[in-house]
Amino acid sequence: MSAVVAQPVAVLGCRPGVASGVCFLEDQVVLHAVGAGCVQLHLKEKWHKFIPGIEKTRGMQAMAISPDRRYLAAAETVADQPVLTVYDLSSVPARRRRTLSAAELPESIAVSLAFSPDGRYLAAATAPPKGHLTYWLWEKQRLMAAVRLEAPGSSVCQVSFSPHDNAQVCFTGNGFFKLFKYSEGTLKQMNLEKGMPQNYLCHTWLSKEEVICGTDTGKLILFETGNLLWETRHFFVCPLVFLSLYAFPACSCSVGSSVDNGSQQDSLPQISAIAAYSKGFACSPSPGIVVLFEKTRGKEFCEEIQEIWLPKDRFSSDTKKSGRQNIIHICFSPSEETMVVNTHKNQLYVFTMLTTDFMKDRIAYFKYLTFPLHSASITGLDICVWKSILATCSLDRSVRIWNYQTNTLELCKEYWEEAYTVSLHPTGLFCLVGFSDKLRFISLLYEDMHVFKELAVIKCRECSFSSRGHLFAAVNGNVIEIYSSITFENINNLKGHSGKIHSVKWSADDTKIISCDTHGAVYEWNLSTGERETDCVLKSCRYSSIDLSSDAEVIFAVGSDQTLKEISESSIQHEVPAFGVVYTAVAVSHSGHMVFVGTSLGTIRAMKYPLPLTMDFNEYQAHAGAVTKMSITNDDQFLLTASEDGSIFIWKVYEKGEIVKWQKEAEYAEEVLVLRSDIKEKSQAMLDLQIHVKELQTENCYQLSLKDINLSLKGCIQDRIHLFSISFIHSVCFLLPESDSNQKLLMENEKYQELDEKSQKMQQEYEKQLHSLEESKSKAVKELTEYYEEKLNEKSVLLKEAEEDMRQQLLAQEEIEKQIYEDEDQEIMEIKIKYEQQLWEEKESNMELKGEIGVMNKRLNSLQKELKERNRCIEEMKLAQQKLQHFTKSLEDDILSLKKEIQERTDTIQEKEKHIYDLKKKNQELEKCKFVLDHRIAELKKLIEVHENDVNIMKKQIYEVSNTLNLASATKSFMEGELERFQKESTQLKLNITQLQQKLKATDNEMHRERQKKQNMEILIKRFKADLHNCAGFIQEPKKLRNGIRELYTKYMQESDLIEIAQKDLQPECMRQREYFERNLAALKKKLVKNQETHQRAYMCIMQENMSLIKEINDLRQELKAALTQLHHLKSTLKLIKKREAIQDTAPSSEPLPSPAVLRLNAEKENEKIIEMQQLEIQYLRNQIQEKGQSPAVQPLLTRNLPKLNLEGSHETQQQ
Question: Among 447, 713, 1029, 1215, which is 20 to 30 Å from 1145 by CA?
């Protein structure tokens, strides 16, 4: 095997989406999933211990820790097959204890795991729709029982054991809550589900029989032995309360927590995580918050005691981003002193638990467990020479600076664009970052990153500083641009790649650049010439990474063909197969003895150089995604790798069982950059603090002096009281008997003598002290005066010596100045003579040039005049062009307005059609009553047919009007009249419709009346028949019969009936007259329509004549323009001829030539004749335009739509 060994010393990252992905092993040791395994992290000592997964694993999907914290169960995937593995954490290093065979597992991977209370059994659950619950005796690798559960959809599910029963298992998910009991080799369900099914996202056991669940609607539901015991309403955190938290400082970032109110209001609350502890439980009811509950003995099952918020991310461009993180798992330490949470953005937070007695506020804040981590694929990694730092950039739009010796994050900043590549300057004070919009040159300050320069390189996927830092290369598509890192000038562009460039490397002496691309090309460039020196092209391979040996003679390249290539002298010298994987990154040590390769599975391979042909290398499980970048430090002690899973591994490199030793111990610089504004702010803050301290000192001194004054006053008062008491006693003693007074006087005298002796002693001691102080002071003053007198003497001697030196130097300087002045005078005289000669020569040449300039000035003046004339003509043409443009714009506006009018008319037509459709519906309803009003329905149908004919006539008219509109788009005034006519017609149609509606209503009312009359008549007939039958009984008695018939007449015959009979005769006459008037109205309407058609035809004829006249006017204008241009050309030729003749006249000639003069006179006459002819033609055209402009049909169209001809201006130009 290879003698090269790499050991991970730090892992920076966190794997997302792992069920129970973080847990405690001890009070200060946290275990969480990262890369292709998990890592142990000590909270105080900050050491890392990485536990790799099984070979070729794609990372852990679920984790579970045994109750005794000794065993770890993990669900992994190897070659698309699910595997359950149990690790023994007590051994050092942690080893794999059991692997449960894949044949006995379901097809899908387990998404939740749980150990029994004694740690002997393991429960595993797979996600729906074909979910399984398996029950294992893991030490013997035996599957004890399995249950299949079919549920709709694929959602989050969770499994857990009862804390006091190995056989009782709880299984929750979308639409089910099930309790199982293991007995006799099967899992039997204990509960019956009642009520509406809920989507249970999480659950935890509070006691032997109580389980509390959280749903996606924000509900907390408590079950006891499978029965619903308690349920809350929708738990929702009010955004207003959230806003009130801005003022509270966070623990780790020293800023307040915030959240996007809009997202909070839009997203429904859901309990995403829940965990129990001895006093109650903690849950996450909405993004960015954990709420602690304690059990109570009252009516309510529990009460809220504290809210814990995620801190605001001070490194992010969006400071509210942390509040939008969903908390997916909560865990407590064994002593329940600390709580750790995991979010869906790969971040870990910690909170120190306090008792209710020590809780100051109801709201508290998390801290970062270590520091902010990358939450997306890492696209760039680089190191520097001066400092022990590495820079990374990621698709999460952040750039971070890490220290690989202390394993800490030094700088972090998040931007608005994605970062594709990063490169550190050798000093470690600057870095280059390629964003999606620009390439930025960034200064690494003490606490911030400051953008110093932006370069217009879009989507730069690769950049690199030179070894000395004075240059840097940036990839722009398939071109490598070389810039100066001092002036930022583009020095050179290296062109030749046909594919996308994936890697660029500099040689140690900065004379060469090596690059590779996706089309299988590896080129070596010479910077001095900018040309390609050597190349090696293999089109079947897409290269992803290259590296160089220290002498830049050997190139190591990896790509898609699963080999590591050793290239030198433009050819592949050696190839090492990858044995079933794809190499994605390569790094070579500076000593040249070690080569490290990263694979697409996330593993790291370490091999010696020269490269082996067989599998003679060490392979390490590290990342869960493809390795994107690798780098080795300059002392070859650390290997740094980054991956698509967002994790960073720091490896310690060993060779032959010993750490690689560098020739010199690495000494790193401690300098940092600070902005002047930051220094000013800090100095101002220090001054403010100093002033505040002085103010506090003065206040304290003042208070102390007040206290001293109070104490002295108290002493004086006590002395006076004592003296007053003595005098009082003396005064009283005179009044008392002599025997008592003598005794008391003796006592007082003795006290007084003692006090006198004490005061004398005190005075003597103070006098001695004062005398000693005066003596010491006088001695010190004498010593100081002697010391400073000696110093003064020494300084005076030095001053005298310096004055003498100054005098000598002044004398020497005066002599030097004299010599310089003499030399300068001689040089000035020589220069004066020389330049006088040059002046004389220049004057002569100037005189010659002046003559030439005079001639040239004349030519220039003539040319300037011609230029002015031409400019004037151009300006006139521009003005005419502008006028035409305005005219075309006005025509376009007219067209748009007419189109809008057409659209509006089509809309009105559609509305009318809708109304007609409604009328047809009403007609269909009226047809149902044919047996009552047949004759009136027939009349209504006739009216409707007449109306439809009118509508069709109107449609035809509208169609004809639209055609006329397309023909004459410029006739706006005529169309306005048509629009008014159509509006009148539409209003008339509306009136007709309202009349028809009124007629329909009247018919409905009449029908109801007739029905009512019919019913009344039937009732009357029945009554009349009954009464008539009664009268028929008196047929044998005539008197009674006559009286009965009279009563029937008086009872059933009334005056109103007679009136109705008379009215019935009047109604037909009214109907006849109404029909007569309606027919007359229809005839008049038809006449009106015919008149309108005749008028419309007349208007169409006028329009066509107008169009023909407009065309003729345009043709005349074009002819006029052509005539003007000819006139201008003739004038210009006349002027040129006159100038030539003037020049010929002024020129001296010995013999007169008569022939040119005769020719010149003939040309002048011809030109004058041509001008007269052109003027006559223009006058004729004007007369024609005026005659056509006076016609009545064309006048309104021309005045509105055509611009006026500037005939006067053209006439003036002709006359000139």
Answer: 1215
